[in-house]
Amino acid sequence: MNHKNKFVLLSVLLISQTAIAAEMKSFAGIRFVKVEAGCFEMGQDKKTDLSEKDKNTTSNELPSHRVCISKPFYIGESEITQKQWEDVMGSNPSKFKGMYRPVERVTWNDTQTFIEKLNDREKGDFYRLPTEAEWEYAARAGTQTVYSFGNDAKNIQDYAWFGNEGYGGDSHEVGQKKANPWGLVDIHGNVWEWVQDWYDPTYYQHSLETDPKGAESGQYKVYRGGSWVAKQSNLRSAVRYSGLPTTRSGDIGFRLVREVK
Question: Judging by DSSP bridges, how do beta strands 192-198 and 252-254 pair with one another?
Fold first, then answer.
């Protein structure tokens, strides 16, 4: 498929997904989905009878606990693309080049520079990374299943780019797979996504119920969602990974939140 046809396909997919979400907004060339306030069960329950959960749940996903997001927010429909990054930063650090592929090889610290420049451009404090709780709330999109599309991994190819054939390959243009129930694309797979929180493997044992923001400090930052490298079990909605704020990898990017003012 040539570049022109790829662009047309991407446009059609994104337009078709507009009808899925309750509301779409566009700021600074980045498409956002409005997420209403609400409560959900965060993490995973080790006691479930579902073998997929039992087999793959790790200790840092435990215990399952109630979390409430008290205010609505906008979250990026997709991961930030290389074009969006270049428009703000004037350069492209990605290993796998393509305007509509997610930007990668960006550290957590790099995302903060991008956010600062974007906020300066709009003369306000609007943009940030999602908290880990906001990310999982939006990723689950009202579900409590292993993935946002259900418990059965046999359908995962319809929703995610992942490392099902080993660790070869690369990233893909955003929006080529099905969206989750709230209209977010590539929430499973393609590239991991940095979130705001410091990582604490035991945080769920003492998490706040309302608007938790993670540990107050730490050595590592959290990233979520799986990637084109990850095996399918690492694309589960509850999976938590972490890296140094200076970690730079060809399978880690991010998506933004824009706060409702």
Answer: parallel
